[in-house]
TrEMBL record, chains A, B:
GO cellular component: cytosol
Superkingdom, taxonomy of origin: Bacteria
Species of origin: Aliidiomarina soli
Cofactor: Zn(2+)
Lineage of the species this protein comes from: Bacteria, Pseudomonadati, Pseudomonadota, Gammaproteobacteria, Alteromonadales
Underlying gene: hisD
Name of the protein: Histidinol dehydrogenase
Molecular function per GO: histidinol dehydrogenase activity; NAD binding; zinc ion binding
Sequence positions that bind substrate: S244, Q266, H269, H334, D367, E421, H426
Transmembrane regions: none
EC numbers, comma separated: 1.1.1.23
Record pathway: Amino-acid biosynthesis; L-histidine biosynthesis; L-histidine from 5-phospho-alpha-D-ribose 1-diphosphate: step 9/9
């Protein structure tokens, strides 16, 4: 008999519209009033008392007494030196791939004349100050350091502040320190939760307020990021948050053991992880369910991992076209295409954060080392938000430069539109220039010089 | 004697840090509890009752009784035909310039092998459904239609829904209709305020919910955009809102009449418009203040325009370097450089939404016709948000495609990092593939074929 509860398979065509909606429904995401109040109080405390509030909150929540919220760079270096060789090599390889892929994403300046004498530019500037939040807890997460730190380094953001809750010794793991140094992080702050986000948003005596906050976190971090991004003039944030998701489309070329292993790698993130398998093959679906039972039994954290599988969906579709349509409707964070000629299906399944093509592209590959970013839109946000990329570490601004000739060419349009929009002073800003002796003289000088050039 | 109250000039060096902060302080931006409650009620009403709620709210707020919230395309065409010739030509010219400049901003696909057998792509897809909010009120705003509509058209967003409050006849202005048709808008909706944003966010019987909402609006629109963007799975929005701003840096090559005209074109947007002049030349500052008195007297809406000038700042700086530093600190929406060799100062003043270079680049040029976008970050958001551009109408997603060789190259890094992060199933998703007879066979086939190619 099956030891773990794994959701049964259903046939999409047999479901009512309401049942379909319910199958693809994400768990409700709403921070409780109580949590929001706590978060607001924490942010206000840090705003008013700065470093001392930060230290007090770290004592309360992380049970560590620190002298300063800043981990000195010498100490970061000492800790980094203790990283196991195997882990160092893994970070080196991941770093190189992430760097290679993100370096290709360099946004370009635009510089054109839209009309003679009207030069328009779209320029790019790195964000000056960015905060990179790295969750703490039971494990160290060097991969998240790389995903946020490599693009910040490539963009050359002036200040790249890494914040992460201290371990019980008031330190960070060697692997996090090693990754942080590789990314040229400029400051390491020992703080977690809402208080860490508060410090990044409003600044303290020892930490500068930043322009944008990146990185995942628990419900306090998520609520705090949302809260500070709504403050007037507050920092930007990378993405709205939600539980992690994997949707797999498989046909009968797929290997049930591979599918099961991928579903489990998603499920182990926690009970609210979303796991969906779509296949036109009942055989593949049932083989996967059986493989899950076997593989679960071998996992150290089987009970926790099994929780996400109880609410997962195993859906039998008419064909791959129907599977693709369901995936588009759901817009998963991670989409795995374990089908024949998988590459041909990418465009039809493009509403996803990151797509894993073929039988040899496990989701955990992208989590760590292929080179793509693992900070991705979830909760259906793949429809309208982008996967994290180098562009998110820059801002774009525009420039226009007009000669007197350029302005005189634009003048009829500006004045007519300003009149239509009843903005008289907008119109006068043009006509006062046009009517001025200065502009008339400059126009004549330019005409004369053009004629001079012609002769 | 001066008829209008215009703030006096102050010398930056004579101000305390507190006075400096106060000079550059934006007006508080916080929607009242009452407004937020109203907005929430309106959104819930539209969510529950759809079109009928929309029609009822349009009756209540716009005093117009409509049969449908959708303005039929034939009617849009009829109305567009009534546009004055001069306005048509102005829209045509502005459209061409905006299109030329935005067409250059096409985001590019990235497609590389980060390692042999590890192909990573960053792909681009247009947002499917976008909503373009065009404010109504006393004047028609065809320029905003172009600023949102042209990039939506270039990106080929499938649905481009224009929403705007109806005039007293239940229609829209000819100029708005003409601009909407040029941009290939797919649907025109007669609704304004929070109810219009609600319809775009949650959809009604006749209006599809959209992925992202663009465009400026009054305090109800702003509060509603903020509210719906915070709903779990809600639409994205273009930019956080704030009152419009112009900061001018001028030296003694500047013309006080030009400066005054530009300051007035900013001030006429309303009493909360922010207007700042920085100059090392007391003479230029005082000449500008005198010119403002003269020019105000000639303006039809002088009283309203003068209100913004009462709280404006005229600051005398030590030199242009100090002026640039103040501008960076303020991070204005619009920055005008009316100085000698203005181009050389752009990089030192880059924290701005849009920069107007030289004596012949009035801000109203960029508002309408140079080609740059007039939807810009204000309220200091020029530090961390981008000026609206073509990229905002796309989403980016990533793809990875691995051969068995590629996966075996990545395997040591993935398994070491998964072990470090205590994610066993992540590790097993790789090792189960590696250990499978299938992958071993595929690896051998590939090796054999490579050797075959070599021979």
């Amino acid at each position: 008999m099956a030891r773990y509860t794994i959701a049964s398979a259903v046939r999409w065509q047999s479901l009512s519209e309401e049942e379909r909606r319910s199958r693809l429904q994400r768990p409700a995401q709403r921070a409780s009033e109580q949590l929001m109040r706590q978060v607001r109080d924490i942010i206000e405390q840090v705003e008013q008392q700065g470093d001392s509030a930060l230290l007090e909150l770290t004592q309360r929540f992380d049970n560590v007494s620190l002298d300063s919220p800043v981990l000195a760079m010498e100490q970061v270096e000492t800790l980094a030196g203790r990283t196991e060789q195997k882990v160092k090599q893994a970070i080196d390889l991941a770093y190189d791939n992430i760097r290679r892929f993100h370096a290709q994403q360099q946004p370009q300046t635009v510089d054109i004349e839209t009309m003679p004498g009207v030069r328009c530019q779209q320029r790019i500037a790195p964000l000056r100050k960015v905060g990179l939040y790295i969750p703490g807890g039971s494990a160290s997460l060097p991969s998240t350091v790389l995903m946020c730190g490599v693009p910040a380094q490539l963009a050359q953001c002036n200040e790249r502040i890494l914040v992460s809750p201290p371990d019980k010794d008031g330190l960070l793991s060697p692997a996090i320190c090693y990754a942080a140094l590789k990314c040229g992080v400029t400051q390491v702050v020992l703080a977690g939760g809402a208080q860490a986000i508060a410090a990044l948003a409003v600044g303290t005596q020892s930490i500068n307020a930043v322009d944008k906050i990146f990185g995942p976190g628990n419900s306090y971090v998520t609520a705090a990021k949302q809260y500070v991004s709504q403050l007037a003039g507050g920092p930007a944030i990378d993405l709205p948050a939600g539980p992690s998701e994997l949707l797999i489309i498989a046909d009968d070329t797929a290997d049930a053991e591979f599918i099961a292993a991928d579903l489990l790698s998603q499920a182990e993130h926690g009970p609210d992880s979303q796991v969906i398998l779509l296949s036109p093959s009942t055989k593949v679906v049932e083989a996967t369910r059986a493989a899950l039972q076997r593989q679960l039994a071998e996992l150290p954290r089987a009970e926790i991992t099994a929780q996400a599988l109880a609410s997962s969906s195993f859906i039998v579709t008419e064909d791959l076209t129907e599977a693709a349509a369901i995936s588009q409707r759901y817009a998963p964070e991670h989409l795995s295409l374990q089908i024949k000629d998988a590459e041909d299906w990418i465009e039809q399944t493009d509403q996803a954060g990151s797509i894993f093509v073929g039988h040899y592209a496990p989701e955990s590959g992208g989590d760590y080392a292929t080179g793509t970013n693992h900070v991705l839109p979830t909760y259906g946000y793949a429809r309208n938000y982008s996967s994290l990329g180098l562009a998110d570490f820059y801002r774009r601004y525009t420039v226009q430069q007009l000669t007197p000739q350029g302005l005189s060419l634009l003048a009829p349009a500006i004045t007519a539109l300003a009149a239509e929009e009843k903005l008289d002073a907008h119109r006068l800003a043009v006509t006062r220039r046009l009517d001025s002796a200065r502009m008339q003289a400059d126009l004549q000088t330019a005409t004369a010089s053009t004629e001079g050039e012609r002769q």
